[in-house]
Design a protein that fits this description.
Blueprint: H1 5-10, E1 16-18, H2 27-35, E2 40-43, H3 49-62, E3 67-72, H4 78-87, E4 91-95, H5 103-112, E5 116-121, H6 124-132, E6 137-141, E7 147-149, H7 154-165, E8 170-173, H8 179-187, E9 192-195, H9 197-200, H10 209-217, E10 223-226, H11 228-232, E11 241-245, H12 248-253, H13 257-262, H14 264-277, H15 300-321, H16 326-342
Parallel strand pairs: 1-9, 2-3, 3-4, 4-5, 5-6, 6-8, 8-9
Antiparallel strand pairs: 7-11, 10-11
Length: 343
């Protein structure tokens, strides 16, 4: 059994967190992750205050376990944040603040109602800013991730962030879809992982079946960092690119962003219609490079159990088998020396 500080802090069995994904998390997915011993998080960008309230009630009907609510700080709406605060989830999760926003104010209000504060950052200075403002957990998001990202890859970013914000617990997000990723993240100093793409390819995820199948069929090499989806939805994301599949929609506007800006309203409508119809060629498909590690649609429970089982095997069997006793290692080294002397 893998047990880390994050398990105690959040009251969960397994150190696996569902990323609060604006268009891809609803009550059934959030509750399924929490019920399976992980930590479910609801993204809020697809809701208004009234529908958010209903969605939170629906999570509570499905689970008594802890869960979180995620807000994109650059577009946070006061009435929606008030709904979150009144619901008192275990975690108020935040990401993507503008440089001029005061994190301390939001974090304090969340702490005042008893929430833990989680902040996702793609760069060390941003993580330090959140740590200084009182965050309880930092998420190190690498550029491999689906959705909005910056430039640093998880492998160097995670240990840098762990060191920078110590002793705060850090979760690793981006590029993780199985136990190999979990074991690697733990080895680099993370207290757990936060997954997005892997949970999108589950029956519980609220996205069109064609999009789930597109993740299964992706070899992971077919995503790009682009501003095209944001231009089509007329949204200015502070300092981020979007990782999305390089499909017909992206190819049509690539290098012609100026023309997309001129036609954004129409294109935005077409993309929304394509999304509703499950048209994988003309909708914007956000997923991470780890789609290349996902070859089937599995239930949330299976995802969590398989990830934990695989990571345990790596930690218990593979890694110890790489270690040699010091005597054995000496014998090998001296054997090599003798051989080279003789040659
Ligand atoms: C479709 C989609 C929507 C997302 N929306 C949000 C969001 O609203 N808030 C947020 O903090 N992160 C969001 N993310 C990022 C995830 O929280 C997480 O960092 C990422 O999915 C992890 O990488 P992975 O997809 O490789 O697992 C989104 C990701 C995707 C794929």
């Amino acid at each position: 059994m893998i047990h880390t500080r994050i398990c105690d802090l959040l009251g969960i069995v397994h150190p696996i967190v569902l990323g609060g994904m604006g268009t891809a998390t609803t009550a059934p997915l959030v509750a399924a992750v929490s019920n399976a011993g992980g930590f479910g998080t609801l993204g809020t960008s697809a809701f208004n205050a009234a529908t958010l309230d209903t969605e939170i009630a629906s999570i509570r009907e499905r689970t008594e376990k802890p869960f979180g609510i995620n807000h994109l700080l650059f577009q946070i709406q006061e009435d929606m944040f008030t709904v979150t605060l009144s619901a008192k989830p275990t975690v108020a999760a935040f990401a993507w603040a503008r440089k001029d926003q005061d994190l301390r104010e939001y974090f304090q209000r969340a702490h005042d109602v008893g929430c833990r504060v989680m902040y996702m950052a793609g760069e060390v200075p941003e993580a330090l800013r959140a740590a200084d403002a009182g965050a309880d957990v930092i998420v190190a998001q690498g550029t491999e991730a689906g959705g909005h990202v910056v430039w640093m890859a998880s492998l160097p970013l995670l240990p840098m962030m762990v060191q920078a914000v110590a002793p705060l617990p850090v979760l690793c997000a981006g590029g993780i879809a199985d136990g190999r990723g979990l074991a690697a993240a733990l080895a680099l100093g993370a207290e757990g992982v936060l997954l997005g793409t892997r949970f999108m390819a589950t029956p519980e995820a609220p996205i069109h079946p064609n999009f789930k199948q597109a993740i299964v069929e992706s070899d992971g090499h077919d995503t790009v960092l682009t501003e095209i989806p944001d231009l089509a939805s007329q949204r200015v994301w502070p300092g981020a690119m979007s990782r999305a599949q390089r499909n017909r929609f992206i190819e049509r506007w690539s290098g012609r962003e100026w023309a997309l800006r001129q036609n954004a309203q129409d294109v935005g409508r077409q993309v929304a219609a394509a999304r509703a119809a499950g048209d994988i060629h003309n909708a914007s498909l956000s997923f991470g490079q780890d789609a290349g590690l996902i070859d089937s649609i599995k239930s949330v429970r299976e995802v969590i159990q398989d990830t934990i089982g695989e990571a345990e095997t790596i930690i218990k069997d593979r890694l110890p088998s790489l270690l040699r006793q010091s005597g054995e290692a000496k014998k090998l080294t001296s054997g090599k020396k003798t051989a080279s002397k003789g040659s």
